[in-house]
Amino acid sequence: MNRLDRYIERQMQDPEMRELIEKEVADLKVGIMIARLRESQKLNQTELAARAGMNASKVSKIESSPKNVTLNTLTRLARALNTRVKIEFVPLTASGRSVAVAHKRRRSVGHKHRPALAR
Questions:
Q1: For the chain, which residues score pLDDT lower than 70?
Q2: All structural domains of the chain
């Protein structure tokens, strides 16, 4: 373990610092997901921006440092990438950390197939 690893390990023991770091990582993941989707569709930032009705510098900023991105902006980018935005609330443990939850894709079931509610 090098000095940087030891420093990060010490910082992660502080609950306030851990929260800040986890928020930064979550923000960066949004930008990374957008960049990967864009690249998988063989689009450059200018092309994605044109599809989303925004300028390329905004796409660049969102991909590199997505601070305070609005849901409207994410929705515009998702549509431009032929995807949709999915927001999920994940429960926290007593320590305040996210619980890893395995998610299975659920098949959409039409109303007529749902059981009647007991009254």
A1: 94-119
A2: 3-85 (1.10.260.40)
